[in-house]
Amino acid sequence: SGTLLVRSIGSHSHIVHGVQNSPVNRLTGLERNKIKLEHEQLIERIKELKELLGSKELIYGVIKNELKEIKKKYGDKRRTDITADISDIEIEDLIPEEENVISISHSGYIKRIPVATYRKQGRGGRGVTGTNLKEDDFVKHLFIASTHHYIMFFSNLGKVYRLKVYQIPTGSRLSKGRAIVNLLPFVPGERVAAIIAVK
């Protein structure tokens, strides 16, 4: 703003030079009136600039107006849209698809084990223990399904539930697994009657 004041005063320097280089007898009444008017305008402009320099609000107002003019003169419409990037990637896309052995015990324990964990039993081999259940429990359902498949659970109350295979906790060959009631919203007395794997 200080530069603005000096520039404004300097822009009227032609008045001073004009008076210095003109003989008094050559100044007509019209020229004198013109010089007087410009002098009064200059005094008024100096007064306005002094008020501007003494007020932060006025300075900010000038800056705001100048920025608006710049935007109006040089601005153009945005050529790209800024939008929220909602990714279409699902959890399943990050989980490798692999075959798993799913087992459910009579007491309602479930687990999955990657097929690669099991060794193929050769002729005359001793085999691999598949689970470590209590004496009164046994494997009731056993099948193979991909981690991306759904398991449909049909309960004895006629309800149907479903889980992705990858949502079933992975267990070791000797672990009994996780209780199904911790994975599905069963009510007391409800249990799995049948299951099926679907894509």
TrEMBL record:
Gene3D superfamilies attached to this UniProt entry: DNA gyrase/topoisomerase IV, subunit A, C-terminal, Topoisomerase, domain 3
One Pfam family of this chain: DNA_gyraseA_C
UniProt GO cellular component terms: cytoplasm; DNA topoisomerase type II (double strand cut, ATP-hydrolyzing) complex
GO biological process: DNA topological change
Example of a GO MF term: ATP binding
Lineage, opening ranks: unclassified sequences, metagenomes, ecological metagenomes
SUPFAM superfamilies, alphabetized: GyrA/ParC C-terminal domain-like (SSF101904), Type II DNA topoisomerase (SSF56719)
Protein name, as recorded: DNA topoisomerase (ATP-hydrolyzing)
InterPro entries: GyrA/parC_rep, Gyrase/topoIV_suA_C, Topo_IIA-like_dom_sf, Topo_IIA_A_a_sf, Type_II_DNA_Topoisomerases
